[in-house]
Amino acid sequence: MAAARGVEDDPWEAEEVTEALTRGPYAPAIPPHPPGAVIPPHVPPPGPEFAPRVRRGDVRAGTLALLREGPRNGYQIIEEIARRSLGVWRPSPGSVYPALQQLEDEGLVQGRESGGSRVYDLTEEGRRHVEARAAELAEPWAAVIRSVPEDRHELRLLWGQVGEAFLHLTRTADDKQVAAAKRLLKETRRGFFKILADDYDSADEIDPRPTEEAE
């Protein structure tokens, strides 16, 4: 059996998966759907085995690292951390905005209103602070990615990719495609339970075609 290809082997696929994770089933809200579209059910968050380990100070470090590159608002900081961590780490507004306020109180960043949002940039003191701690602040999202076991990380990315494909299907599929998708989802669910029962051979027999075609 050929070795499974890692997500990193295909940069375009990695970007697609990131989009799925940040705007698809793992996002806090589902994007707007056209009239008549099927809205996917809420996907429960991954279990503790899939949860990244975010250390105290990582949000602060990630915020400073990004502001070193240029001004950003809070939403852009959240989105960029999610993108660079391939969707493993998506800090909440409840952690990013208090961090920005603390940095502003310390005189390390300054905020200004621009286009209806508050944009933050490093002050001169902030730039000196970041330069003095360049190694400490270098890509904190990399450590968060490494905190998730590689096989579970790839499984999480694949699940996000499935969710994105499902969104596309609900927007464009005709009746025949919807029927085929329903069969596939039912068979996939059965396949998961077979895997959990260590029945690997029968789990490989999933076939989404109608019974008469499969035979």
From TrEMBL:
<dbReference type="InterPro" id="IPR005149">
    <property type="entry name" value="Tscrpt_reg_PadR_N"/>
</dbReference>
<feature type="compositionally biased region" description="Acidic residues">
    <location>
        <begin position="9"/>
        <end position="18"/>
    </location>
</feature>
<feature type="domain" description="Transcription regulator PadR N-terminal">
    <location>
        <begin position="64"/>
        <end position="131"/>
    </location>
</feature>
<dbReference type="InterPro" id="IPR036390">
    <property type="entry name" value="WH_DNA-bd_sf"/>
</dbReference>
<dbReference type="Pfam" id="PF03551">
    <property type="entry name" value="PadR"/>
</dbReference>
<feature type="compositionally biased region" description="Pro residues">
    <location>
        <begin position="28"/>
        <end position="49"/>
    </location>
</feature>
<feature type="region of interest" description="Disordered">
    <location>
        <begin position="1"/>
        <end position="55"/>
    </location>
</feature>
<dbReference type="InterPro" id="IPR011991">
    <property type="entry name" value="ArsR-like_HTH"/>
</dbReference>
<protein>
    <submittedName>
        <fullName>PadR family transcriptional regulator</fullName>
    </submittedName>
</protein>
<dbReference type="InterPro" id="IPR036388">
    <property type="entry name" value="WH-like_DNA-bd_sf"/>
</dbReference>
